[in-house]
Specification:
Bound molecules: flavin-adenine dinucleotide
Mean pLDDT: 96
Strand content: 15-25%
Radius of gyration: 23 Å
Helix content: 25-40%
Number of helices: 17
Amino acid sequence: VRLETIPPSLISRFAEIVGEANAVTRADEQAGYLREWRDRYTGRTPVVLRPNSTEQVSRILTLAHEHGVGIVPQAGNTGLVGGQIPSMDGDQIVLSVERMTRVRDVDAVDGTILAEAGVTLAGVQDIAESIGRLFPLSMASEGSARVGGFLATNAGGTGVLAYGNARQQCLGLEVVLADGRVWNDLKRLKKDNSGYDLRDLMIGSEGTLGIITAAVLKTVTKPVDFATAIAAVPSIDAALALFHAAETAAGDTLTGFEFWTGDLQQIATAHMAGVRAPLDHSGPWFVLIEVSEQRKDGSARALLRDILDEAFSDGVVTDAAEAQSLAQRKDFWALRESFSEAQKHAGGSIKHDVSVPVAKVSSFLKAASEAVQRVCPGARPMPFGHLGDGNVHYNITQPPGMDKATFLALWEAMPRAVHDVVAQFDGSISAEHGIGQMKRDELVRYRCDVSMDIMRSIKRALDPKGILNPGKVL
Ligand SMILES: Cc1cc2nc3c(=O)[nH]c(=O)nc-3n(C[C@H](O)[C@H](O)[C@H](O)COP(=O)(O)OP(=O)(O)OC[C@H]3O[C@@H](n4cnc5c(N)ncnc54)[C@H](O)[C@@H]3O)c2cc1C
């Protein structure tokens, strides 16, 4: 859909809804909304609107629908696929939910939190903590990512292995539809088979089907004892064997199983302030393994010890360090969470967020590495991620000495080569970050025609004028 340029008189009508102070038109004040974390996408907009209520969002969409104006929802602006950034044409309005930060209800008995779309993920975690529970969604961007954004992207992170992704943490939604109607489905039901699951349709729709204004979030019983280790493993096959043994021994008390390369660890410890590695070892691979228990009787630690002892005797682990305190556990996770940013210090990097069946991760990595060398000899794959979910952040750093721009110019050929390998292994080209604008054209290549037809029909039914996040996903 090609949208018309928005006349100033119409912009004034939008501004009236939120008040002048929350209709941002000055370039310097808009800058933070028009550029994303990786500096890959920038956009233009006549105005950033910052409503503070569902009613204001509804009025904005009613007006936008009437005049066919594109609206780009934004929450914490930490999305990694350009979904929250408007186009460069300057004909789309950014709607930021950052001022919608009310917590409408906390129910300690149900363990639910009814929060508006602008509450940060860290804020939700704190509320859960205050009622003695855990909100298990966790990722490096949690200080900035917000309810609307993490639900619209169905975010994953490090807790998926044990607790599932954002979808599993949400019981109900309030959403403003393209024509301004408010769909209120703020239920707290664990069971609800009354017709199509509209909540699950909205979650992960990246702002293309409706604007999430509030959600009922579910918390879980909080583990009180943790045993966490970082282990050096000789190969990804060994890491997979360790994962299998740990899952068999620990069941759902296995709450973390992450992996990364020795190269990546070296870059992170060399360049990131305060980031330390507990093992003086080159790897070549490392895993972080965590067991969490509901009781503080040392059983978590005993279980982890058993898992590691067996792994040492099987030659699956060559060295390991266990966290001796909560502070050290924090350091272990800080190392793991530093990798996205650390890669910036090694030159240009081309990133992929893919998943394959867990058992195929090792074969995938071998095949992908060969594909990368065919596109750019000398390029250095530095994969890391959530091994227990088969989710690989398959990031490739430029060859030493190569011009950064020359390498980054491969940001079409490289994903094509890597995604073709993903397809061979029945994987997904977007495990947790979404499609946004970055992978829109790739989606058509890797999802079947029937899937694309269904998605287009849903989009047409809910947003016939194509005003919701135009140019994203489809
Ligand atoms: C350092 C770092 C680490 C990260 N780690 C992870 C990780 O481990 N796992 C993971 O899944 N992601 C990760 N991400 C990506 C990102 O943090 C998540 O996708 C996050 O959920 C986005 O939330 P946000 O509030 O920043 O949304 P935004 O970036 O503002 O928006 C993301 C998408 O949601 C849409 N949207 C925003 N608000 C609404 C709303 N109210 N209604 C409808 N649509 C809306 C936007 O239009 C856009 O398409 C990471 C990002 C960074 C920078």
